[in-house]
TrEMBL record:
<feature type="transmembrane region" description="Helical">
    <location>
        <begin position="412"/>
        <end position="433"/>
    </location>
</feature>
<keyword id="KW-1133">Transmembrane helix</keyword>
<feature type="transmembrane region" description="Helical">
    <location>
        <begin position="354"/>
        <end position="372"/>
    </location>
</feature>
<feature type="transmembrane region" description="Helical">
    <location>
        <begin position="135"/>
        <end position="153"/>
    </location>
</feature>
<dbReference type="InterPro" id="IPR020846">
    <property type="entry name" value="MFS_dom"/>
</dbReference>
<dbReference type="GO" id="GO:0005351">
    <property type="term" value="F:carbohydrate:proton symporter activity"/>
</dbReference>
<feature type="transmembrane region" description="Helical">
    <location>
        <begin position="475"/>
        <end position="492"/>
    </location>
</feature>
<dbReference type="InterPro" id="IPR005829">
    <property type="entry name" value="Sugar_transporter_CS"/>
</dbReference>
<dbReference type="InterPro" id="IPR036259">
    <property type="entry name" value="MFS_trans_sf"/>
</dbReference>
<keyword id="KW-0813">Transport</keyword>
<dbReference type="GO" id="GO:0016020">
    <property type="term" value="C:membrane"/>
</dbReference>
<feature type="domain" description="Major facilitator superfamily (MFS) profile">
    <location>
        <begin position="59"/>
        <end position="498"/>
    </location>
</feature>
<feature type="transmembrane region" description="Helical">
    <location>
        <begin position="193"/>
        <end position="216"/>
    </location>
</feature>
<dbReference type="Pfam" id="PF00083">
    <property type="entry name" value="Sugar_tr"/>
</dbReference>
<comment type="similarity">
    <text>Belongs to the major facilitator superfamily. Sugar transporter (TC 2.A.1.1) family.</text>
</comment>
<keyword id="KW-0472">Membrane</keyword>
<dbReference type="InterPro" id="IPR003663">
    <property type="entry name" value="Sugar/inositol_transpt"/>
</dbReference>
Amino acid sequence: MAYSSFDSKDEHIGLTAGQIAEDADIDVALLKLGQQVVSKQKEETFTQAWRNHWRAAVWSMVLGTALIMEGLDTGMLNSFFGVTVFKERFGVLTKGKWAVPAKDQTGLGDTATCGQLVGLVVTGLCQERFGSKRTFIGGMILMTATIFVAVFANDISMLYAAEFLMGIPWGMFQTLTTAYATELCPLGLRPYLSAYASLSWGVGKFLAVGILRACLSITSDWGWRLPYCLYWIFPVPLLIAAIFAPESPWWLARKGRYDEAKAVLRQISRSDLYEEGEIDGFIEYMRHTDALDRAEHARGSWLDMFRGTNLRRTEIQMGVWMTQNWNGSQIYSLAVTFLENAGMDTTTAFDVNLVLQAFSIIGVAISWVLLAKVGRRPIYILGTLASVVANIPIGALGFAKSSSSVNYGISALMILINFTFHMSIGPVCYTIVGELPASRLRARSIVFGRFVYVINGLIVGSINPYLTTYLNAKAGLFWAGTGLLCVLWGFFRLPETGGFTFAELDILFANKVPSRKFKRVVVRDALADETSGDSADHIKETGPLGPRDQLPTV
């Protein structure tokens, strides 16, 4: 029976010959039990998944809280430039007014970004080698130490050093927590806990605005030192929590530490969840998935991301991250400026910004509802399209004569873009990039994608001020154009990853199923479906579904 087209919605695909050969030593009877565990996870509602695996969810959220610190710094640093005591310490006096030079405003942010790039590389080298837990603990120790440099900075040079050094652990946490959540949580909780990263950033930015608003009345250096001191609220308790946190059972299984992996599965699940033999079967399913990865040249090196079908996964990983930069939401940075141009005073605009950050958090909560009802692919594509649609009238209003009503209208559209971003593209990105890679390449693939994101962020951050200066609201047309390119890429290249196990995604990519048709095929993992050794031997000799053609990639 040949499988060369998708004329039927019930079209089946199965293991490739290479995957079968790599999985030659699998215990098919035990794997059957593991398949039953996975099937039960697929059928769980959110409530059932939480009741059965709430410990996994809580540990994932605890470690994911580390990202609040980066949101804090991102929000604080940009706002510091408007704080008088900060300007008097690190700025220059020009025409009787203190101000931080534009080159330093840009330079401090870029320096922190360079530190993040270093941190991403550190995570890529350490997470798969030493595990998520030890890498996280190392990052927290480094975070605790580097905060001292910021708190006791006396000049702009020390502040540069502080931002770079703090950027390293921030870069580590950016991707470490996503990979950890993806592997620790079951299928029913995975999208929500991986998207929790976006919520943590939103909470951090919200706290940053609130803290600075509260410190505006402090007229000494503590007006900016105190906010930096508050960073220490997180590292010590998170470091202690990480010591007791479970390691990823998937990582332990990949390292051959099966007894430890079984212990973790018992630790993070309801005590009576697994029946006799099911934990052993689940570990065998992990070994089976690892074998499928190895068959597709995914043995754990950086170069493996560009070999075989992993090259396609890497391209999609890059595209998902780059869409975060180029979807058009960057124009939101002008919202407060247009509110002030409409007649709103600076203090009120500051308060409005606090409300807008709260809306970002609400947007992430809405994304969780959408994830339960809609697939990752439509949320991502439609969210990007919404940004395009909103940017077009913004650009058009840029040609209108400036007035309060026009400026308020532009601001409202920008706020709508930001809200839409945080209920679609922002959080769902982390769900997709966590599920997409082969298991052995997950940590490094997410790191590489985030590295691409940061580089593109530097580019966008460099051109955005020029667009603001020379085009003003007309820049909406530019961002509508880049957003449209992202929509087209997503339509043709972004697959639906929701509802599939890691093994099923391996089979889909190995069969080169077109991205738009992932949900139109039935994935048959024949080794996991069989129960007897004789059947397994027959599969390994003849193939699970008989000979079939390889499917073209679209």
